[in-house]
Amino acid sequence: MTLLPWKRADRESGPQTSVFEDLALPLFPSLYNVAFWLCRNPTEAEDLVQETFLKALRGFPAFEPGTNFKAWIFRILRNTYLTSRTGLAAMRTVALEDELEKSEESGSGLQPEAAIDRQTPEINLIRLSDQAALHAAMEKLSPPLLEVILLCDVQEMKYKEIAAILDVPIGTVMSRIARARDALRRALQSHPTPIREFRV
Amino acid sequence: MSDHLSPVNLNSLADGELSAEDLAIADEHLAGCPSCTTDALYQAFLKAATARAGQRYSPPAHLLKKITYQSERQTSEPHPETAARSRGRFGVLGWATAAAVLLVSVSVLLMQRSVHQAAIASAEQVALVIEVSDQHIATLAASSPPQVVSSDKHTVKPWFQGRIPFSFNLPDNLPKGTTLDGANLTYLSNQPVAQLLYSIGKHRVSVFVARRSGAIRPVGPAAEQSGFHVMSFSTDDLEVIAVSDVDQARLSDLVSVIEKAQTGTHKQVN
User: Which CATH class is domain A111-200?
Assistant: First the structure.
């Protein structure tokens, strides 16, 4: 088994705290944003971010300089979340998602042709401009699907980085992203559009 | 076009994750497939839209302060294990060092005090030797006779009754050639003392008998002062100092018999 870059090093002396702050503090808003999405609660999000920073600071001497700090600290955030009360509930969903992935691999899952609504492209594009509809659609996503969307679209991470954070194969990341976007599309289709409201 | 791009490929295209080879294939397909082009465009818009919508929550200002404070506190405080190790090390090394420092400090202090006290005692002894020598010389130079002139101890001793606040014994038998000439009431270190005057041959001897106190200390080993021998002994109550230019052995004989008279045993003759 190949260790992740930040797992390789376990050096006695690491970079100084000021280096940690230089790397971590710019990520503070992103970490909080993802934490809030995952927890859906401001207090829990604050606790999660605080604990993440604390763990990251303690573990920073083991971080190998030059490797992906963003992926490293987001992995800490996710692991911390998974051990929280909210995260433990999400873990059950993760297990369920794994079963869904297996069923996809067997061919009974997502159907490519059905994945994209080809009938109303204009309506779909209009709905994409509706922030409330998007928020509602994202909130409906299960934690495993939401986190890939957050990491991929919001944090603009590569599949490889996401796979390292989630500790899953890249294929699983790709699969989850596809299902997440399909779920978003379906949720947006079921959401009333502003145009429809004009018509009423 | 029968083989449309799969959702995974469409997503990978939107995410910029297609390899160069797959990208070329996708481009070729999209050029001839409006349906997949629409899907690819939708995926790109969806990605941009979720990116914007996903930036939803901003951290409260107090959280950053709290985290910064926490970070500083974490930095200033040693890691629990490190602290425990430090405490452990201090428990052994620290206390040992502290004990050693304390021991050395006390030793140095005691040594300094001892040296200081020895220096004071030495200075007092020298001063006393000088004083008894001076008094002896003054007695030799005096033209006047002793305050009590008698070779009888039963005359000399009673003469001091009421003059000095202590009493002493005089030997019955003196060494050969030694006689009692008399005595004076004098003062050493502002203390009243008895100055017994003896003659050993033609040499005059002054024996100062003082009450033992802090003011008059033992002279110590036989000393020399201006050509005079100074010898002393102590009892529980008395301090006796003899000074003469007679040879040291004969002076020592006299001092011994005087001391025996005080205690009945020879305690200390310097």
Answer: mainly alpha
